[in-house]
Amino acid sequence: MLIVLAKAKVGDGALEAAREAIAAMVEASNAEEGCIEYSFTVDVLDPGVLRIVEKWRDEAALAAHFATPHMAAFGKAIAGLDVEIIEATKYEAGEGAPVM
Questions:
Q1: pLDDT, tens digit (0-9, with 9 covering 90-100), for 65-97
Q2: How is residue 88 annotated by DSSP?
Q3: Residue of 29, 15, 31 lying closest to 78 (CA atoms)
Q4: Does domain 2-92 have CATH number 3.30.70.100?
Q5: What angle separates helix 14-30 from helix 69-78, to the nearest 10 degrees?
Q6: Which residues, listed in sequence order, are joined to residue 7 by a DSSP beta bridge?
Q7: Which helix (H) or strand (E) segment is 84 a member of?
Q8: Percent of the chain predicted with pLDDT > 90
Q9: C-alpha radius of gyration, the chain, whole number
């Protein structure tokens, strides 16, 4: 399994302007073959930071995600907004187990 953790800075009004595009991206990504989880959250300590958590079956599923029409549409939707990905890292992981 691959886990992608990303962080984006959003300027004033950018989150509201991008909200519909983000919702569409999350919904479409979660429906992809090979997607285990895909989510955006707002940092509770800094509302100008979005955190993106993705879990993919494998490298092929992640590569296919980057080639989807909804990924291209999302890029276009946020292109003019004050949104900047400042960190994106992928990790290889096992299937995981409950912490407690």
A1: 999 999 999 999 999 999 999 999 999 999 889
A2: E
A3: 15
A4: yes
A5: 180
A6: 51, 87
A7: strand 83-92
A8: 98
A9: 14
Residue 69 corresponds to which tokens in the numbers above?
């029409």
Contacts of 7 (CB under 8 A, 6+ apart): 49, 50, 51, 52, 85, 86, 87, 88
Q: Tokens 């187990």 identify what position?
A: 97
Helix (H, G, I), strand (E, B) or coil at 92: strand
CA distance 5 to 55: 9
Amino acid residing at 44: V
Identify which of 66, 98, 49, 74 has the alpha carbon closest to the alpha carbon of residue 2: 66
Q: Quick count: other Cβ atoms within 10 Å of Cβ 58?
A: 12
Beta-strand pair 49-56/35-42 = antiparallel
What are the residues facing 38 on neighbouring strands?
Answer: 54
Main-chain dihedrals φ then ψ at residue 16, nearest 5 degrees? -60, -40
Beta bridge partners of 53: 5, 39
